[in-house]
Amino acid sequence: MLEPSNNNELPVIPAKRYFTIGEVSELCGVKPHVLRYWEQEFTELSPVKRRGNRRYYQRHDVLMIRQIRSLLYEQGYTIGGARAHLGSDDAKEDSTRTKQLIHQMVSELEEILELLK
C-alpha cells in the first residue's frame, strides 16, 4: 500500500474503458472498502453497476478517486471539506485552468511538430 504522501507515485492509468474495484484499488492506492464508502459520501463518484451488483469504474471515476485521495490524505481535508471543495467554484476554476493549460500545451506541441517537419 502506498503512503498518503506518495500520490505522485501512483501507477499510470491504462487505456481501458472499464476498471474493476480491485484494479481501481491498485491504481489509486486505496482499499476496496474505502472506495465503497467514498461512493456513499461523494455523489460525483458513481461507477456503473452491472450483473451481480459489480462495480465498473470509468477513467473519469479513477481520476476523481485520485483527486479525493489527494484532498483527504495529502491536503488534510475532512470528508465534508473535500465534498465542499469538489462542489465549489475553486474546483471548477481549477478544472478550467487545467483545460486551458492542456490546450496551450497541445498548440505548442503542434508548433514544434511543424518545425520538425
Automatic annotation (TrEMBL):
SMART domains: HTH_MERR. The keyword Glycosyltransferase does not apply. The keyword Glycoprotein does not apply. Keywords: DNA-binding. Pfam families: MerR_1. InterPro entries: DNA-bd_dom_put_sf, MerR-type_HTH_dom, MerR_fam. Residues 18-88 form the HTH merR-type domain. One of its GO terms (molecular function) is DNA-binding transcription factor activity. It comes from the Bacteria. PANTHER family: BLL5018 PROTEIN, REDOX-CYCLING DRUG-SENSING TRANSCRIPTIONAL ACTIVATOR SOXR. This is MerR family transcriptional regulator.
